[in-house]
Amino acid sequence: MNLWQGDTAFESRPNKIVTLDGAARRKVVGRSSLGKWDPDKRGHDSLQTILAQNSIRDQNLLPLRHGRMAATPWTYYRGAAAVMAADLASAPHTGIMVQLCGDAHVLNFGLWNTPERNLAFDLRDFDETLPGPFEWDVKRFLASLVILARENGVPDVAQTAVTAAYDGYREWIGKYATWPELDIWYDSVSTEQLVGYATTDDDHRLDELIEKRAAKRSSRGAFKKLTSVVDGVRRISEDPPYRTHALAEHYDELEAIVSQYQDSIPDHISSLWSRFDLVDAVQQVVGVGSVGMRVFLTLSEERRTQDPIFLQIKQAGPSVYEQFLGPSQYENHGSRVIHGQRMIQSATDMFVGWTSIHGVADAGPLDFYVRQFRDGKVIPKGDMIAPRLAQFASACGHVLARAHARSGDAKAIDDYLGKSVKAADAFSAFAFAYADQNNRDHAQLAKAVQDGEVPAVEGWP
Questions:
Q1: Cβ-count burial of 285 within 10 angstroms (0-12 exposed, 13-18 middle, 19+ buried)?
Q2: Which residues does residue 284 pair with via DSSP β-bridges, in sequence order?
């Protein structure tokens, strides 16, 4: 089913917004119906949906992916965006379209440096980005709070966190509905604002800790930690199976990937990049849902001073939402990721780009996107934010609202949500119902692993 047909918030080109009557959309999908979850209508088997994603992945890494997803309900949720995409698509949607993050779980919000070297708090993962109904991002975000709270032994804070998250989203959508478009696009959430959300009596030095950690998360910091001198030559250190020099037979292809990447970046960045030489590259294992997708970490050095820069080159496949929302307008899925990122984020790493290659490990044509590695990136950890989950979730709600206001019609969303508690209660009900569904789906995978039906190994560095 192609959801571009009919009355949506996008015309044939998804980056062109048209106005919808948000209140009128309640007659299409009532707000109370957003809280309903019926497992009998999901129309797919969650385990088969997970396994169907394996065809484009590195087959040698699949047991690692299965092992990570089977570890806990939370790690399962992180890797099961495809499962939730199918579940969300099994029910009617509002038709109020935005650029979806596509995987807006609570740990996919974080800090990194803008091109001006200022830390900003924003969404940070765009592998599944695609234009789609605004409520799909909200539902994935809110359900993640329940699952994370349970995972970290604080289930009693789940309701407070869901309420704070929705209230943060609702408040800022309401504000953005009255703002001029340019003000929305210039808006960002700084470190100071994040601290303002998160500060409690024991957090008076939180801003200092963030700045200190971000300073270490840089190419220069990674250079000290991840490299060593081998036979007089600087190399990225191996840590099998998470970092391996498995590219000897593909080095020509990797150089072609880097060369094609240069064609995707603006001329001034291309000029800067031309002053660096590729020194080394490894294959890398990252995340949960990304395990098995081909990820390369490259080390380049500036020709004059040998200043290092690391780039991460990550395989991009079709968004898990495309089979329900129609194909992306971008032929290269790396391009889809980067264009979505630029639409959503307040400021984007100036080195982001995309490329493609044929014949890596006999996998056929593959698309990739490129970004800096650890450019001031501070990623939250579940056990660290669990005690202050409500405050953190409120900040995330602000960021998600800004992303949706940039790419969609904030007034239509504001009018649809309205002033009553109907939408709030519905989103909350869905979050808890879907967290329970996630537990059942995780148990299905864990049993398949235990019974030997799905190959799996433990895999956390």
A1: buried
A2: 243, 295
In terms of residues, how long is the chain?
461
User: If we measure between CA atoms, which residue out of 430, 433, 432, 421 comes closest to residue 167?
Assistant: 421
Measure Cα distances from 118 to 108, 205, 347 in Å: 19, 19, 10
Q: What mean pLDDT do residues 298-305 have?
A: 92
Give the pLDDT of residue 204. Answer: 46
* CA atoms of 401 and 171, how far apart (whole Å): 9
pLDDT of 444 higher than 70 = yes
424 belongs to a structural domain: yes
Residue 19 lies in a domain: no
Of the candidates 320, 350, 372, which is a domain's last residue? Answer: 372
Residue 132: which domain range? 27-215+381-450
Domain shared by 273 and 397, yes or no: no
> Given 332, 348, 372, which residue is the final one in a domain?
372
Residue 18 clears pLDDT 90, i.e. is over it = no
CA nearest neighbour of 145 among 414, 455, 428, 419: 428
In this prediction, residues 373-389 reach a mean pLDDT of 78
pTM as predicted: 0.90
- What distance in Å separates the CA atoms of residue 284 and residue 295, rounded to the nearest whole number? 5
93: CB partners within 8 A, 6+ apart? 3, 29, 132, 133, 135, 136
